[in-house]
Amino acid sequence: MDSYKNSNLRIAINGFYSRFQELKADIESLISEEKVGLDLDERRTKFDEASKKIVALREEFKAALIYLPAYDQKSYQEGIKEIERNYNLGLQRLQPAPKFSFKKRGLLNKPTKITSAEESLSCSLPTQTNVATLSSTSELKDDSIRISSHTFKVLELEGYLSTSDGSVSKSVQLSKLEGCAINLFSQKQAIATLYLDDLVNCIVFAPPISNSVLINNCKGCLFFLACHQFRMHSTRDTQVFLYVSSNPIIEDCQTVSFGPYNIQHPHLKELSEKSALLLESPSNKYNLVEDFNWLKQAASPNWSISPKESQDKLSRIDVEETVTFLKSGSSLDQAMKSLF
Question: Origin, by domain of life (predicted)?
């Protein structure tokens, strides 16, 4: 029924509204002029934190465009522009008054000026008819980390980091991979948004992601993911072990199953804190999937909860031990089948 679909959309829209207000309040608190007792370096540190949260807000807004009505899109864009203006005005007040000098002087530890919303989000927002393409590479920034076009390999994020990586969270894209095991855990590099495109028979071990996971056109995969927002398109025959703080959304998917994210890694707690995900919280919404292709009140046939046997088998799986095992196998394909 249309009323049931509208109810699902309203849940997603309300969830984004709450998240937007939460991030907005955090940013306003960080750049407030009422930070009594803080010296200049401490204020600059606060502005650095605010800058990261503004980037997170942009990313989450982009992910939400798939379901936000056109009016809400424009309203949120204006809200982000106002936040950016207030940030930049506060940043100007942080700079010390210039002293008369014939020498050029630079500012040390200067927080980054936020690019205007017109540039960062684009004035022409996508229409409802083409919004499903947002998980494509067009959304990725130039400094995003891309892992693409491999077959039957064990791939690790650490091997794709440059010496300059690690200072800020970055988007990561995995694309055109077949029969690969991918370990995205890294102490050096936090992940802001994760894009999974065109993966076949792959396993992905991901640390807590600070924003969204966007999946498109995957088949026969096994994903271990934790994030604030989850979107899956045109995917089938795939298992997802997930922690998510808002209702997951799927579209044009078949035979996908969901279970709780419950893995082991020595740095999991540290990475969880960086991403602001409380993995021990009972608020994991992995089982509250919204299928945008299913209009009936009856349960969608396109997704299910993972069977208890699968959950038990994969419960508390150790990422490092598993990756080491997969590396040691003479045939990665056979090793993956024996394990899962």
Answer: Eukaryota
Asked if 332 and 154 count as a contact pair (C-beta separation under 8 A), the reply is yes
Angle between helices 2-30 and 70-94 (to 10 degrees): 10
- The confidence band for 127, taking pLDDT boundaries of 50, 70 and 90, is very low
**Strand pairing report for 170-178 and 290-291:** unpaired
| pLDDT value for 298 | 80
Contact predicate 20/76, CB 8 Å: yes
Number of H-type helices and E-type strands within the chain = 8, 16
- CA angle at residue 66 from 202 to 278, to 5 degrees? 65
Higher pLDDT, 269 or 8: 269
Each residue's pLDDT tens digit, 11-31: 778 888 888 888 888 888 888
166 vs 271: CA distance, rounded Å? 13
Sequence-distant (≥ 6) Cβ neighbours of residue 255 within 8 angstroms: 236, 237, 238, 302
Write the DSSP string, 129-186.
TTGGGGGSGGG--TT-EEEEEEES-EEEGGGG--TTTTSS-EEEEEEEEES-EEE---
Distance, in Å, from the CA atom of 188 to the CA atom of 133, rounded to the nearest integer, reads 30
Across the chain, mean pLDDT equals: 80
- What pLDDT band is residue 201 in, cutting at 50, 70 and 90? very high
State which H helix or E strand residue 198 sits in. Answer: strand 191-200
Residue 138, pLDDT score? 43
Count of residues in the chain: 340
Instruction: Spell 178-202 as b/e; 16+ CB within 10 A means b.
Output: bbbbbbbbbeebbbbbbbbbbbbbb
Q: CA quadruple 273, 79, 214, 249: dihedral positive or negative?
A: positive
Tokens of 108: 């040390």
pLDDT of residue 50: 84
